[in-house]
Each structure stands twice: as structure tokens, then as C-alpha cells.
Amino acid sequence: QVQLVESGGGLVQAGGSLRLSCAASGRTFSGYVMKWFRQAPGKEREFVAGISWSGGATFYADSVKGRFTISRDSAKNTVYLQMNSLKPEDTAVYYCNADYRPRGNYWGQGTQVTVSS
Fold first, then answer.
1. Could you give the count of Cα atoms lying within 13 Å of 47 in the half-sphere of its Cβ?
2. Which of 9, 22, 53, 66 could form a disulfide with 111 if both were Cys (CB 3.0 to 4.6 A apart)?
3. 3-class SS shares of the chain: helix, strand, coil, % to 5
């Protein structure tokens, strides 16, 4: 069974940085696309960044390009989201997602990121 556990969230001032981690377990993730989503209060969950587990190709939402970087450590089965130049509008619960559709699509429990102005 796939498990995704996020960590690294917290409270930071605008302009600061945080690094989120997503520890994945339960199977090998070759062929998966690993993604980060976020959901702010009263808003729909939105895509933030993604990475191909096998090839390492990355892609980002326009709102975070140039500020956020997604990466993965295959040896540790962990995906990271380095977030720099944080803005108050980045405040949200951040979720890790392992996409292997149609065979599977898995979510972590989320980690809160709060950016104060």
C-alpha cells in the first residue's frame, strides 16, 4: 500500500524559504509522476509542481515558476519542494501526490504552510 508522508511546513515571513518533504513508501515509484498540490481556505486544490520519477522532468504552475523547485531523491524515496521568496498568497495546506493513473493515484495527509506579511 502506497503511503505518502509530508513534512516541513510551518510559519515563515514573506520573502522567506521552506523545504517540504514527501516520504513515499509501499512500492517502487518508477513510472510515477510525483506532484505537489495546495489548497488555501475557501479555494479549490491547485497544482503546484510535478516531477517524473524516472526521468526527472519537472513542470510548474506559473504562479510558482522561478521561486519553487521540485526534486527527488530516489535512494531515499523522497520528493522535495524547495520554496523561496514566499508570499502570503502561498499560504495553504500542501499535499503530496503520487500519480500512476489509471492504475493508482495517492495522496498524503498534507502539511500547513503559513506565510505572514
1. 14
2. 9
3. 5, 55, 40
The C-alpha cell of 71 is what?
Answer: 526534486
Strands 78-83 and 68-73: antiparallel
Residue of higher predicted confidence among 16 and 74: 16
Tell whether omega for the bond before 41 is within 30 degrees of 0, i.e. cis.
Answer: no
**What is the per-residue pLDDT across 92-116, written as a single tens digit (0 to 9) for each?**
999 999 999 888 999 999 999 999 9
Report the share of the chain in percent with pLDDT over 90.
86
Contact present, 1 and 97 (Cβ < 8 Å): no
